[in-house]
Design brief:
seven-stranded mixed beta sheet; 11 strands; single chain; 2 domains; alpha/beta
Length: 363
């Protein structure tokens, strides 16, 4: 951690140091070609370029954080990494408007900085040490700002597209999937631009350009694909109900026989039987395999509790919950038991197994 801003830590990932060294060595020849008279100072300029690049990214992320806090969403951390940076938030952005504003202020901050550097550059010698640093500040901020406005996740332009689709369809996850697919197209386009454009122009592609385009394209493809998967998963989560992830159940008294409990379940159209304690609390559920092994001629004399699996306190969820609220409630309840009971107004309506919820989300 190198500091704090708007109540959140600023973290410099170890990969940043690797990026700083590699980028300095890569940019040094370009600086030397423009200002050979600087000698060994070209590495100073190249390093300055890298530092300005990451400073631009930090300004970009801080702008996101400031706008997020202004819209009621607290940033959790700002992280500078090999690939730039990201801002983590405590929860999902609540509205399309907030999402769009938080996304767009980052590129705007960089473009304003680029304009400021451009104004300063008018008064300095272009090929001087200071001039090269000022121009690099202009170019880095312009690049960070404009590149992030490209409409595809995981770029800020992708979040703007996501917000637009979200506002139009009233479904955030549809926007996420759409922006993720556009992000995949952008990823392929970046690589194709570096590889195919030179061929169309009748020249050989530069290996330097192709390698960088491949790395950037891979990063964009990975982020876009994660967005598509995440959008589909969240859309699936939003459709979950007790009926879709659980099995219909009925409650029976703890004094009932196995045969009578089975008859009550059949009459209610239930697959599962939950045994109630004297105070009406779900206390156990019937092990169906154990119950099936009891001969029919003795089931009437067999206590239902003899084939019961105890339920700890807290293994109960509201049967009216749906979507993310249901998943969160099941997650809390399954900290105590892998099987939980769904209850509506004190009446048992279902039995939910944690693995069935996971399977429903994945499918």
């Amino acid at each position: 951690m190198i500091g704090r801003a708007v109540g959140a830590p600023i973290i410099l990932a170890p990969s940043w140091l690797i990026a700083a060294v590699v980028l300095t060595l890569i940019f040094a020849p370009t600086v030397r070609a423009r200002a050979d008279h600087l000698g060994a100072l070209v590495y100073v300029v190249a390093l300055g370029f890298v530092i300005l690049l990451f400073a631009s990214v930090l300004v970009h992320e801080l702008a996101h954080g400031l706008m997020a806090r202004a819209r009621g969403q607290q940033p959790r951390e700002f992280v500078l990494t090999l690939w730039g940076g990201h801002t983590a938030f405590g929860g999902a952005t609540p509205t399309p408007a907030s999402s769009a504003l938080i996304a767009v202020v980052g590129p705007i901050a960089n473009l304003l900085l680029a304009a400021g550097f451009l104004a300063v550059a008018q008064g300095v010698e272009t090929n001087s040490l200071v001039g090269l640093l000022v121009w690099s500040g202009c170019l880095t901020n312009a690049f960070v700002g404009l590149f992030n406005l490209v409409p595809g996740l995981p770029l800020d332009g992708g979040f703007l597209l996501e917000a637009a689709v979200w506002a139009a369809t009233k479904n955030r996850h549809t926007g996420t999937v759409a922006a993720g697919w556009v992000g995949r197209v952008v990823a392929v386009g970046v690589f194709a631009w570096a590889l195919l454009l030179p061929l169309v122009q009748g020249r050989q592609p530069e290996i330097y350009d192709v390698v960088w385009a491949a790395l950037i394209g891979a990063f964009l493809w990975s982020g876009a694909s994660a967005a598509v998967r995440g959008g589909r998963t969240q859309k699936a989560v939003g459709l979950l109900t007790v009926a879709s992830v659980g099995r219909r159940a009925t409650g029976v008294g703890h004094t009932e026989s196995l045969a009578h409990a089975g008859a009550l379940a059949a009459a209610a159209g239930a697959e599962e039987v939950v045994i109630l304690s004297p105070d009406g609390r779900p206390a156990a559920y019937v092990d169906r395999a154990a119950a099936a092994s009891v001969p029919a001629d003795v089931a009437g004399a067999t206590p239902v509790t003899s084939v019961a699996v105890p339920l700890p306190g807290g293994a109960v969820v509201d049967g009216l919950l749906t979507g993310q609220e249901l998943v969160a409630a099941v997650a809390r309840a399954t900290e105590h038991s892998p099987v939980v009971v769904a209850v509506v107004d004190g009446r048992v309506v279902g039995l939910i197994r944690a693995m069935d919820v996971v399977t429903a989300i994945r499918s």
